[in-house]
Amino acid sequence: MEAADFFASAGEKRSPDQRNGRTSLIEITPRGREVFRKVPKARIGEYSEILGSWPEGELSRLEETLEKLNHSLADWEKK
Question: What's the confidence (pLDDT) of residue 6?
Answer without folding.
Answer: 61
